[in-house]
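We modelled the chain as a single entity of 180 amino acids. Its sequence is:
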Amino acid sequence: KQAVLGEVMYGKIEGSPEIYVLAADVEKSFIKTPEDFRNRVVLAFDPEQILSLSVKNPAGDFDVSFLGNGWGWKTPLKSRHVDQDAATGMALELRHLKFKKYLGVQDGDAPAWQTPLAKISVSLKGGAAPRVLLLGPKLPDGSYLAKLESKPDVFVLDSRQAAPLLKGLAVSSVTPQLQQ
């Protein structure tokens, strides 16, 4: 029952005579929908298990492999060195990517998925199939449609989470040994 001031409420455990004073916002923590309990992680993987990242986005196409002691180019710039922080940052962005809203199962052959804005593939150790994220069109609110290539489920990514996936990786023409 809500108190007169609205900042506290009274609570009681069924079958118990005690009455408790609770913060008014406690009630909100118990009012949940099934959507509130949905696992929002887009790509669940252990970053230590990454073999390579393949990215096709507006900034260009690139493939990098994790070589045990750092990232190296598979394509296109084998003569240059990968920005280690940027590659690791993208891997971590992918690992912590959570969707904003689940839209349900939609037509996987729709035009948005035939030519996605970005396609990011994560290959993992152990021979599992690559995990491929497709980033679809930008929505009026600035967020993006997205889906996994292997599943028909479509969801919405917040613009802040999508932005790093639309960037390229910086390169250096200097060998790591010469950088001081």
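As a brief sanity check on the tokenised model: The helical segments are 26-30, 84-95, 111-114, 159-162. The first strand starts at residue 8 and ends at 12.
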